Amino acid sequence: MRSTHPPRPALPASASRGLPPPAPPTILDPPPARSNWVRRSHAPHEPFLCDAPPPPDSWIAVETSPVEYRLVARLPGFRRDAITLAARRRRVLHVVADSWEPGGAGHFERRISFGYDADLSHVRAEFDGEILRVIVPRRTPLLTWYGEACE
To answer: What is the architecture of the domain spanning 22-29+48-137?
Structure first.
């Protein structure tokens, strides 16, 4: 049996799902220096690494593919056990690296904000001594159809 309804116009994939496209990942500015905040607190000590500059040849970039986000960061002078990844509010990935070696690299800190499709509960990372590679899988939103059934 043929349908008597006129054909529907083609919609973008995100519109057919009823969702706007996810926001692209954004590398947020490094947090401000905390030295003034620490001095106002009643802490008996001041952190010595939070104000240390990152190495001049360090950088970070985000690549996007249909199934995942790839974060690549150059962190020369840091050791694997001094790098921390943390998810904040299910949308922000916090990357922190510290070096305590004499004449070492210092402190590197960046936050990357992701859209609703990033699955920060399944992040994978590897570090080869200079390059940190982080894979953030992308979720596929469930497809819900509210149209007429076709036979």
So the answer is: Sandwich (2.60)
